[in-house]
Each structure stands twice: as structure tokens, then as C-alpha cells.
Design brief:
By secondary structure, the protein is α/β, with parallel strands linked by helices. The protein is built from 9 helices and 15 strands.
């Protein structure tokens, strides 16, 4: 027997989410059984738990798009008992039971080796948010944005993606400007490596199609008007990475930045990314992420607390990363 958060929605009834005791035989099909050490609460997990968006595609469902733990059993060629693994995305927690559980049965193709530099807890302090941030930094680098190219804007800076992006960019020598609506977090953001802070209100309303050039690159986790304004302010041949929709899924912009300034808008998908970019992103994290800065981002909770804090995540009240000790 093991514990997990279970989301259910019987025919004609309201969705429920609660911690339940399950039998291992109830786990879905898969060729690797993992003893989960830690998971996380991401924005998508909060949507799933609260039912505020139809993230869950079938019921009952164990949420949790991230997990880190140890292989207990494996019929997959790449994995054996005792291997330390991490999983991010692949529809887990949406269509396949996920990581907010003490055990998970998974497709071995979805797993990658947990870098030796990290414990399971540290890996989940990073989670999909940090892994996505690393994909963004990799994309900026791949498109030629270097530390001497100019300032990098990070929106949604006090959230999980933003926090890790700031730490990674700063470690790589970039000058980072953090956009946040939380003035009280200035010291926190500067401790991560931000050189200056701007109020998110300067980006969150409708703006001109082209604005004064400022950013050599952007990491945006917000979308909507914020993303449109970030593009409008990006310098000639600058690069904007888009990975989130905290403000909205809409993109109320014009083609002007792209055809007049040669700006590149680079979409970042962390869910279905192939193994190679996943491994590269985790390699960057292992190389560049300061563990002291990582720890400063972390609030640790248990499974029951995860149910309660989901509303705060959606309301933008959570700073940094929520790590879930599924065995506490």
C-alpha cells in the first residue's frame, strides 16, 4: 500500500482531490516501477488539483508532472533496480498517473538519469519549472545571444521558471532584469543574480507594436500583453523565449518586431521535448546552478499541504519552488 493524491470526478458529480491509500496493483501500465522520493507543485498541477482548467484527461488521476526517485523494478533495457531517475512532463499527471504519489509505474522512455550533482530533493526543487528555464537559456545561447549581447529580461521573475532562469543566466555572465509585481521580493531576486528590477505593470497592458529597443533576449513565462510588449522592446535580431501563460494564452501583438527587427520568437516545450535537449538542460543545471540559490527558492510541503497550496499557486502568491516530500 502507498499514499497518493487522487483526483476523481464521478459521472455528474463535482471533481474531488484527496490523499488516498492505494494498492500497487492499481498503478497504470508501464515498464518501470519507481519509489518516489519527492515531487513538486507546478502551475499545471495546481490547475489539475483545483479543476480550474481541464488539465486532467481521464479519471481517477494522480497528479504531478514531476518526480524523482529510485527504480524498484524494470523491464526496460535502459534501467535497472537502484537507478536514480527524474521525470518531467510526457503527459504524466494528465493522462497517466503522476508524481504526487509514493510510487509510480512509468514508461522507461520518459525517464532520464538523475545527475550525480543533485539529490532527489534538489532535482524537485528544480522540477519542470527549472528544467524549462534551462531549456530557455539553452535556446538563447543556441540563437547567438551571449553575455555581451545586452540585457536579458525575465518575466514572472519570482515564480519557479523565473527564479531558476535568473540564477542560471547570472551564473553564465548575463545581465538580468527581473520583472515582477511583488516589490517585496527585490532582495530575493537580486540574491539570485538579477541586476535590476522592473514593475510588471510596465509590461502587462496593451502597448505599441514597436517600442524602444532594450532587450537582447527574453525569458517569458507570462504570455499575453507581457509577451507582446517584451517582443516590441527586443533589440534587432534579439531572441524571445516563450514558455508560459500566467497572464494569458493570447498573444495580442503585431508582426512588426519580427519583420522590421528580425526578432526571433522561440517556443519552449518542456512536456514532449526529446531526450537529448532534456539531458542538455539538466547538464546545464548541474554545471551552473548554485545550490545555495536553489535552496533559497524552496518551500517544502507534504501531500496534504499540496492540496491546500494549489489555490495560492494559481493566485500568484507562491515564491520560488514548492517541493513535495511524498513520504512525510
Amino acid at each position: 500500500m502507498f499514499n497518493a493524491i487522487v483526483i476523481d470526478k464521478p459521472e455528474g458529480a463535482t471533481q474531488t482531490a484527496a490523499v488516498a491509500e492505494l494498492e500497487q496493483s492499481q498503478l497504470p501500465e508501464g515498464d518501470v516501477l519507481v519509489q518516489v522520493d519527492y515531487s513538486t507543485i507546478n502551475y499545471k498541477d495546481a490547475l489539475a488539483i483545483t479543476g480550474k482548467s481541464p488539465v486532467v484527461r481521464k479519471f481517477p488521476m494522480v497528479p504531478g508532472i514531476d518526480l524523482a526517485g529510485t527504480v524498484l523494478e524494470s523491464q526496460h533495457d535502459n534501467w535497472k533496480q537502484g537507478d536514480r531517475v527524474v521525470l518531467n512532463g510526457w503527459g504524466v499527471g494528465e493522462g497517466h498517473w503522476g508524481g504526487l504519489s509514493q510510487r509510480a509505474r512509468l514508461n522507461g522512455d520518459w525517464l532520464i538519469e538523475l545527475p550525480a550533482a543533485f539529490s532527489s530533493r534538489e532535482a524537485m526543487a528544480i522540477g519542470t519549472a527549472g528544467y524549462t528555464a534551462s531549456l530557455c537559456v539553452d535556446a538563447l545561447d543556441a540563437h547567438g545571444v551571449q553575455p555581451d549581447s545586452g540585457e536579458i529580461l525575465v518575466t514572472g521573475a519570482s515564480g519557479g521558471v523565473g527564479s531558476v532562469a535568473i540564477a542560471l543566466l547570472s551564473a553564465a555572465g548575463y545581465k538580468v532584469v527581473a520583472s515582477t509585481g511583488k516589490a517585496a521580493e527585490e532582495d530575493y531576486l537580486k540574491s539570485l543574480g538579477a541586476s535590476s528590477i522592473i514593475d510588471r505593470a510596465t509590461l502587462s497592458e496593451k502597448g505599441k507594436p514597436l517600442q524602444r529597443e532594450r532587450w537582447a533576449g527574453v525569458v517569458d513565462a507570462v504570455g499575453s500583453f507581457t509577451l507582446a510588449n517584451a517582443c516590441a522592446q527586443t533589440r534587432y535580431r534579439g531572441v524571445v523565449t516563450a514558455c508560459g501563460l500566467a497572464q494569458g494564452m493570447d498573444f495580442p501583438a503585431s508582426v512588426a518586431p519580427f519583420i522590421l527587427r528580425g526578432v526571433t520568437l522561440c517556443g519552449i516545450d518542456s512536456v514532449m521535448a526529446p531526450t537529448a535537449p532534456r539531458q542538455a538542460a539538466w547538464a546545464r543545471l548541474a554545471r551552473d546552478l548554485d545550490k545555495a540559490k536553489l535552496e533559497a527558492m524552496v518551500t517544502e510541503i507534504d501531500l496534504k499541504q499540496a492540496l491546500v497550496v494549489a489555490e495560492d499557486v494559481l493566485a500568484g502568491k507562491v515564491k520560488g519552488r514548492l517541493v513535495v516530500d511524498v513520504n512525510r
